[in-house]
Specification:
globular; seven-stranded parallel β-sheet; 9 helices; two-stranded parallel sheet; alpha/beta
């Protein structure tokens, strides 16, 4: 089994690499920081292949596929992404466009290219990392929430298209709640809710992916929140979300 993981140098992606390594998978690890990738490579015994690329540049996504399409990838994990906290009118446009390019465009390109390859072989797993933010609209993190909504909806639709064709290619979407990673520091969050460990989320996500589960939500309380939010009026949800995000400032 061979797996390609984007955003592999930290957080959930790093823990997913460790999990799949223990399962005996050959790994291709992708992130911006070559130094961090090499550190992880050393921890895993020097076996993984590392590719340092900034996937917020669409041409690098195509390049990544060209570099790896002959490797017969069995598992694609689209984990790279980031968020930013603040008023929509205050966050620099360049930052938001960079977020859209990484969270949406890169994931879309890689999913598109690899699923076509997987379909030809009639096998393969794709795990797209979204968030419980994908189920909501997020005042003070408006663009981030919107990008994760895109990831969720795209993954659901693609999964059903493949099912209707009787394909053995599996598409799953991982939707964690708060996770203890470097996400908060990059997003500019000074304080956040206590969250699950990145290891727990990674292990849970991979286990459910191999069971071909479509929507994967780690943690009982998070799953309960996703279930019950559908019964709450939209305006009230928006106010709750605003207050929650505002506490992080």
């Amino acid at each position: 089994m061979k797996a390609l993981i984007t955003g592999a140098s930290t957080g959930i992606g790093r823990e997913m690499a460790k999990n799949l390594h223990k399962r005996g998978a050959e790994l291709i690890l992708v992130a911006r920081s070559e130094q961090r990738l090499n550190t992880l490579k050393s921890e895993l015994g020097g076996k993984p292949e590392v590719i340092a690329l900034d996937l917020s540049k669409p041409e690098n996504c195509t390049r990544l596929f060209e570099l790896t399409k002959g490797e017969k990838i069995d598992v694609l994990i689209n984990n790279a992404g980031f968020g930013t906290l603040g008023e929509f009118t205050e966050i620099p446009l360049e930052t938001e466009l960079n977020m859209i390019d990484l969270n949406i465009t890169a994931l879309h390109i890689l999913t598109k290219l690899f699923v076509e390859d997987f379909e030809k072989r009639d096998s393969g797993y794709i795990l797209n990392v979204a968030s419980i933010a994908g189920f909501l609209s997020g005042p003070l993190m408006a663009t981030y929430y919107a990008t994760k909504g895109y990831v969720l909806k795209l993954s659901l639709a693609l999964s059903e298209e493949l099912r209707q064709k009787g394909s053995r290619v599996s598409v799953s979407v991982l939707c964690p709640g708060p996770v203890a990673t470097e996400f908060d520091s990059r997003a500019g969050v000074k304080s956040s809710l206590s969250g699950l460990s990145a290891k727990y989320v990674a292990d849970y996500g991979i286990k459910r992916m191999f069971k071909r589960k479509t929507v994967i939500v780690p943690g009982f309380s998070t799953r309960a929140g996703v279930f019950f939010q559908r019964f709450v009026p939209q305006k009230l949800l928006l106010r709750i979300c605003y207050k929650t995000q505002n506490k992080k400032r």
